[in-house]
Amino acid sequence: MAHSMNSSPINQQLSQQNKAIALRFAKAGWGTQANWQQVWDEMMAPDVVQHFNDFPDAVVGLDANKAFNQDLFTGFPQLKNTIENVVAEDDVVIYRSTLEGKQSGPFLGIPATNKTVKVNDFTMLKIKDGKINEWWYTTNLLSVMQQLGLAPDA
Amino acid sequence: MAHSMNSSPINQQLSQQNKAIALRFAKAGWGTQANWQQVWDEMMAPDVVQHFNDFPDAVVGLDANKAFNQDLFTGFPQLKNTIENVVAEDDVVIYRSTLEGKQSGPFLGIPATNKTVKVNDFTMLKIKDGKINEWWYTTNLLSVMQQLGLAPDA
Description:
The structure is a homodimer. Chain A is α+β, with helices and mostly antiparallel strands. Chain A has one domain (9-147): Nuclear Transport Factor 2, Chain: A, CATH 3.10.450. Chain A has helices at 9-28, 36-43, 62-75, 141-147, and strands at residues 44-52, 59-60, 80-89, 92-102, 116-128, 131-139. Chain A is globular and about 50 Å long. Chain A starts with 8 loop residues before the first helix and ends in a 7-residue tail after the last helix. Chain A binds chain B through residues 1, 5-7, 9, 12-13, 16-17, 19-20, 51, 53-55, 85, 87-89, 92-94, 96, 108-109, 118-122, 124, 136, 138-145, 151, 154, and chain B through 1, 5-7, 9, 12-13, 16-17, 19-20, 51, 53-55, 85, 87-89, 92-94, 96, 108-109, 118-122, 124, 136, 138-145, 151, 154.
């Protein structure tokens, strides 16, 4: 394995700092925490871009990101977020988590079903100057719809 | 940042070797390659476990994994797989890719629609003794169904 494939010590330290940023975002910045919006103000770049689940349009800017996620959290106000794995390298952090919660409010236009959903997801953050600059979020929304009773099982 | 949070040089070399394994799996082991099954035989542990998209049952064992993915590839025989990001640390590799292809065969019980689909996905590999030992695959199947014309847009 060529030495050039290894990260430099400086990059390695950066990736560990970025991992700490990701863990704080995933825990304190989660929508069931009282101060999540303040955490997002601190941790995200003003022009942050979110790529949510293959939606055709990216969510651009801190205010739009907060509004978008406020809507998502309304559907699942008690969603439990368990971090399963975190991997960091250079300016990228990817983590896998398990989500579990009851849909007690509207979600993507669907009225409350009061059914409980459990899914896996992946979040990828690109971090620049200590701020979340661009991020990707993917979960299987078909499984969410199936568990809510709104789509037939595969 | 405490030094203990950094990977050791040995772990770092291992993670780079694991990244090379992931890239070979993602490229040569993909279902549109002629010899993908031979690549899987070489690269996967006999008792490999796959967690596919929140399906309730894991896919256990090399033969079951090959059969399961043979079925998936039948639906999209020309699926193009573009690796966007790869992050490795210790025994874990996570990569994000973009998939694009036409559903010209049956897929999860759905007859061919001949429609083209483009989605993002995440794959996480756990590697033990140089073999893929356990893996997770997540994509938004609701977006797949929407692009195939089989689910209403969100």
